[in-house]
């Protein structure tokens, strides 16, 4: 059919469609029996759509009809306003002056009413997708007085839909995936298109889906829009991605409907449908004999057309490596098989290997009949190398008794040259591991001998390194560790585990345990320690103490009577012999010191000193400690205060009148108590002055070099002579004022047997006092003596 004829046919159908839509409101205005919302006694209002003015649909007898809907066609764009409908009331008989009034949504703007005839026109182009209906109110009023003749009646104007919106894929374009080799009919994805037209009016929103591109690989359900696989055996390795164009058409897919399209990109996902394949069937490698264990000897690679996890393979040696010399591991990054050395190679014993290597996929698909695998042959040729000597053992463990004679042979190490030529081997000790040179080794036969005496109690183990070097090639060196264990002999006597100091109560009972004593031994016999305790022979029959074994390598010291008194004897010494069970037995004599102390009724030690026994009973021990502490604290405060006053110098400002310090010589002085005239702390020893003491009361205008005064001798100076010298210097001083002035004579004389009486000049301090006597008063006073005793290290600090 010619294109022109098709266009004319389409225009004809569109005209007939518009005519049919326009006639629908006229037909649909047939009254429906029911109760009218605007019923009243005075009259009835009716509405008719598209009728002439001379026509009457309703009579007064049928005022119960419903007339609450009108229709208007959307997107109407004629030259004149479109008539929506007509309002009419039975009050309009031509004899009364009435007027129709319209109110509500769009009244006056979108919709206009003829006040005389009641005709309603649409003034603007309407779009149902913007607003589908309008609610308005109609009323009849008196044209002269504007008084309502009827109550207002509400009605709805519905915008009738036309097919003016094409389908749209809101979520497009789409991406989907489906496994390769999927069966025909396998769902891939589902697309959805929307149409803004009215779905309940006509077929404007009824959509039908079809494929424009993508056949014969995929199909689509016209109603559900489900895309499915349409071709069998789609292989990802051949083609991975497909572009499918989907069309959605309204009007049920008939001619004249609008359409929209979208694209769907379908990707075939991989399945394990391809086996690994070696790039070569035979691999050849040459590996040196001295290749370190764990190092790579070669690489093999099996390629797989699959991707991801489906392409990963694992490698294994299936034949030719019965001795386990090699291993093959998979490189996770390159998917290569790394051939590594697992055990040392020996050119002299085996010079070539033929291995069969297999590559197997890690994952398998049940539908593909896997797992997939492939094999290849690997030939390895061992290249001869000059190897270092090889020890018979990598680690040697030797034993030697402590105190063994020098040059004793401890053991022997052996090494050989594995090469076919067989070089002679020399042995040496790495002196970095034997700094004290306690061992020697014979360079020819590897015998290790003792060079210095050993003591197990000092070092139980000695780890040295022995090297073996080829005579032919000194660069070929091997090392072996030699662990030498020093075996114990009984060369140490047992002794007390600690320095015991026992306390015995005066009111103790006979048989009371005074102290539990145990011993230790530096030796370590195989059968364990067992000690024997006994008193020295001269103390076996002593009347005061005895010992008893506790059957656990310890003893208890017991008192024999209850008549111990501090006044009689405050301290006892009990020598005890301790013997071990070694061969030969070793023994030592240890002395236990026992103090006699005063105890409470509960047996708690209170005092262990004789002087403490005669203290007043009225004062408790805590009160005595508090009093002593307060006295010491007061002495410290007094000492600090006096020392601070002594260090304050006499300062006379230049603007002060020095005559304030003048003392008249004809007055009787106040002696050492007169401290108001000057500070007595400024008196200085003449031994520290170089023969002349500058004046402190004035600053002389004329300076002169002082005459050297008579220097004090080291052994003694006459005070009268010293004063005469100072008086002579003052009389001949040209800078002296014309008035008398105080002269400072800071010298008390020398040679006194008693020495200085001032405590401030003494070189001693509280730290020089001895508080050791407090320790003899018992455990409670021992702690006090430690607090107030100052050791030599504290004094230096």
Q: Would you write up a description of this structure?
A:
The protein is 11% helix and 32% strand. β31 and β32 (447-450) form a beta hairpin. By secondary structure, it is mainly β. The relative contact order is 0.05. The radius of gyration is 63 Å and the shape is flat. The protein contains six helices and 43 strands. It starts with a helix and ends with a helix. The strands form twelve sheets. Strands 36, 38, 41, 42 and 43 form a five-stranded mixed sheet that branches. A four-stranded antiparallel sheet has the order 2-5-8-7, with no helix packed on it. It has a four-stranded mixed sheet with strand order 4-10-9-6.
Short description:
This protein has 797 residues and is mainly beta. Strands 36, 38, 41, 42 and 43 form a five-stranded mixed sheet that branches. It has a four-stranded antiparallel sheet with strand order 2-5-8-7, with no helix packed on it. A hairpin with a 6-residue loop joins strand 33 (461-470) and strand 34 (477-487).
């Amino acid at each position: 059919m010619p294109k022109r004829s098709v266009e004319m046919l389409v225009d004809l159908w569109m005209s007939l469609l518009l005519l049919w839509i326009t006639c629908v409101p006229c037909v649909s205005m047939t009254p429906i029996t029911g109760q009218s919302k605007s019923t009243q006694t005075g009259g009835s209002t009716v509405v008719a759509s598209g009728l002439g003015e001379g026509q009457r649909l309703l009579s007064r007898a049928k005022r119960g009809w419903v007339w609450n809907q009108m229709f208007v066609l959307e997107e109407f764009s004629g030259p004149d306003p479109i008539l929506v409908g007509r309002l009419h009331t039975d009050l309009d008989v031509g004899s009364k002056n009435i007027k129709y009034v319209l109110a509500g949504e769009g009244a006056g703007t979108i919709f206009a009413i003829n006040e005389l005839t009641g005709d309603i026109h649409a003034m603007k182009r309407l779009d149902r997708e913007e607003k589908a209906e309008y609610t308005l109110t109609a009323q009849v009023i008196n044209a002269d007085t504007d008084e309502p003749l009827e109550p207002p009646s509400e009605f709805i104007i519905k915008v009738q839909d036309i097919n003016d919106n094409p389908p749209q894929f809101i979520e497009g374009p789409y991406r989907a995936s489906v496994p390769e080799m999927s069966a025909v009919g396998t769902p891939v994805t589902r697309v959805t298109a929307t149409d803004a037209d009215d779905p309940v009016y006509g077929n404007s929103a009824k959509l039908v889906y079809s494929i424009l591109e993508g056949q014969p690989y995929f199909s689509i359900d016209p109603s559900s829009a489900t895309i499915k696989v349409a071709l069998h055996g789609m292989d990802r390795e051949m083609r991975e991605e497909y572009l499918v164009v989907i069309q959605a058409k309204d009007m049920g897919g008939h001619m004249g409907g609008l359409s929209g399209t979208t694209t769907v990109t379908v990707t075939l996902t991989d399945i394990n449908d391809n086996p690994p394949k070696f790039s070569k069937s035979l691999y050849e490698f040459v590996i040196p004999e001295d290749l370190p264990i764990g190092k790579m000897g070669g690489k093999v690679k099996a390629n797989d057309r699959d991707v991801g996890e489906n392409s990963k393979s694992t490698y294994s040696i299936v034949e030719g490596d019965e001795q386990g010399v090699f291993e093959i591991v998979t490189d996770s990054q390159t998917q290569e098989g790394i051939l590594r050395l697992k055990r040392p190679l020996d050119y002299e014993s085996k010079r070539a290997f033929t291995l069969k290597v297999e590559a197997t996929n890690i994952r398998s698909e049940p539908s593909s009949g896997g797992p997939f695998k492939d094999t290849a042959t690997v030939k390895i040729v061992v290249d001869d190398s000059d190897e270092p000597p090889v020890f018979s053992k990598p680690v040697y463990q030797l034993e030697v008794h402590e105190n063994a004679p020098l040059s004793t042979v401890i053991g022997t190490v052996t090494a050989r040259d594995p090469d076919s030529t067989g070089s002679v081997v020399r042995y040496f000790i790495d002196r970095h591991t034997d700094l004290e040179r306690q061992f020697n080794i014979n360079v020819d036969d590897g015998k290790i001998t003792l060079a210095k005496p050993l003591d197990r109690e000092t070092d139980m183990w000695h780890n040295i390194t022995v090297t073996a070097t080829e005579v032919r090639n000194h660069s070929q060196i091997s090392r072996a560790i030699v662990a030498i264990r020093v075996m114990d002999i009984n060369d140490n006597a047992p002794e007390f585990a600690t320095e015991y100091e026992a306390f015995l109560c005066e009111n103790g009972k006979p048989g009371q345990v005074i102290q539990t004593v145990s011993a230790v031994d530096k030796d370590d016999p195989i059968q364990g320690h067992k000690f024997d305790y006994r008193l020295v022979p001269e103390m076996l029959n002593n009347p005061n103490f005895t010992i008893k074994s506790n059957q656990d390598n310890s003893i208890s010291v017991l008192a024999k009577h209850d008549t111990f008194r501090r006044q009689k004897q405050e301290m006892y010494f009990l020598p005890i012999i301790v013997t071990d069970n070694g061969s030969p037995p070793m023994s030592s004599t240890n002395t236990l010191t026992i103090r006699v102390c005063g105890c409470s009724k509960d047996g708690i030690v209170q005092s262990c000193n004789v002087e403490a026994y005669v203290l007043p009973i009225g004062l408790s021990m805590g009160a005595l400690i508090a009093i002593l502490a307060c006295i010491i604290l007061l002495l410290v405060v007094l000492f600090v205060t006096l020392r601070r006053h002594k260090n304050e110098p006499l300062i006379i400002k230049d603007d002060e009148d020095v005559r304030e310090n003048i003392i008249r010589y004809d007055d009787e002085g106040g002696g050492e108590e007169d401290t108001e005239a000057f500070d007595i702390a400024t008196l200085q020893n003449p031994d520290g002055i170089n023969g002349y003491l500058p004046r402190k009361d004035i600053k002389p205008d004329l300076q002169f070099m002082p005459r050297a005064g008579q220097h004090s001798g080291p052994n003694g100076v006459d005070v009268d002579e010293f004063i005469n010298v100072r008086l002579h210097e003052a009389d001949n001083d040209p800078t002296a004022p014309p008035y008398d002035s105080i002269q400072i004579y800071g010298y008390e004389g020398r040679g006194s047997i008693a020495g200085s009486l001032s405590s401030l000049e003494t070189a001693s301090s509280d730290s020089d006092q001895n508080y050791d006597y407090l320790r003899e008063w018992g455990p409670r006073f021992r702690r006090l003596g430690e607090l107030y005793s100052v050791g030599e290290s504290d004094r230096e600090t």
